[in-house]
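Async update (no meeting this week)

Hi team, since we skipped the sync, here's where things stand on the single-chain job. The sequence we agreed to prioritize is pasted below, unchanged from the tracker. I ran it this morning and attached the output directly underneath so nobody has to dig for it. Comments welcome in thread, and please keep replies under the output.
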Amino acid sequence: MATVATVVLGHAAAEADYRSLDPSPVVVEGGVLLCPIARDGDPLPPQEWPRELAVVLEDGREVPGRVGWMVPSPTTGTAGWTECGEPFTIVEQTTDSEALPLLLADLPRGYRGDIDLPAGTVTPRWLRPAPPPGRIPQAGTSRSPDALPDSTHPLEWFRWVLLAERVGDVPPPPPGDEAGRLAARHLAEVWRAAIARIERASPGVAEELRQRLVATCTLVEEVGPEREIAAWIADPRDLRSLLGLAIDDERDAETAMQAVLSWLRGETEVVVWAEESRGEEVVLGVANPGSTEALLRCRWLESDPVPLAVVVPPRTAKTMVLQRPVEDGVSADGGVLVVEHGPHRRRVVFGTRPAPVRPPGASLGPFRRPVTLASLQADSTTTPPADRGGSAELRRRQGRWELFLECLRPPEARRDEVTVRIGDDVSPVAVLRIPERGSVARGDAEVSRVGHEDRWRCRVVLPEAWLAAGLVGRRAPGVGISIERRLTLGDGTVERTAIGTPPPPWRDSAATEVWDLSRWPKGPGEATARDGERSSRRILAP
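Output:
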């Protein structure tokens, strides 16, 4: 007969009842209970909720519990390749009135039964725990940070557990405060139990599932040493879908295994990303973590009927240069490359290059964080927090080309510097480093800066000689411009952001974007200074 436990909520229970928002949370036998809860009665801010709740079993044993809070994951400009893609994390304290309260409790070993809350009974969906690790080590854990899970996010700790099992090692302690650590343990327990359930039906499918969750490959480039990078399933939507199939209690182990296998076969394991857009050519990144070579077919969406075949060796990542179709000096592809791997198709957006600059000016875009594996799989890019954002604009005024920059920065910022590079990334014509404060090695450029309480603005007059020598491409030449920002915060953290195509974190500099300045009207037809000032007044008023 199931043992019944009662949750005792201290003095607050006399004033209000606490109830579960999920009547059947998933829990591993003897594992960590994680249950979203609500408080009936007058609303209270999070800081006035009890921090500790006691789970009392029928035999009188008391199990300490915690109130945790689901809050948005913090966003910085220091994105790593394996940064956790979960939009939420679990913390013990918060002032966010929109945060979701959770009850977390470490249940006694082997416990299985209903749990009574003051406003109702919770009947968990119990999972059989996975057996203790006893697998033969297969390979050593990579030392590359681009091949290791996010060590700061509790909901990514399950990968450390799976990696440790593969190498016969012990995972590092879960990150976060007490609530975060309990949440990390809960998710790891559920994933291990789910894989064990699939393994009872098919050891082969279970091994494939493990591999897809911790897959890495070797990035091989012409210049520089090889490095290991992650290529696992990182999109949190995919992870939730896959986990849901594996633990679905409406399926037996055999049908759950078949559902997981269908999911794995229906989603390609090949990862592709845009590295750089150099006008008439682009640089594409590809990672194949599979055990067999991947044959890819690449074609431009609008004007390339014959695809280019590319072979990527197993467990290998590489970059490749692809030519754009060009007509009359202009890219004729719409900026979208279609990459096919078997029945799977993915669109990689490079944008139309060289992009024309016309009156009143061209927005070069916002500063973006480095690309991450999770953002690639979710087809998203992210900007830094609002208090650390920025943008750039290019225009011609009174016969001279001017670049405008706006950089927002928080009060605790120690140093803020923007690097502007003209020309290609191998042999640039000029590199201009512009700090918010301090001297600037200007060369022939004119630089003006204006500081404000929460931001600073910069105007750079680009010498014609730089632009004439900074052309990139032969069939469709344009001026190559690269803009990168490094913001040093009060704790010494350096946040990197860039204009244009977000680079992967292991790139030392921002990607070069190519712009066609020949489309700006010349002579009497050129835009007036007033037109240009109106477009950029918000950026700089020196």
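Quick observations from my side:
The first strand starts at residue 5 and ends at 8.
Helices lie at 157-167, 178-201, 203-214, 236-247, 253-266, 373-377, 464-469, 529-536.
Reply here if anything looks off.
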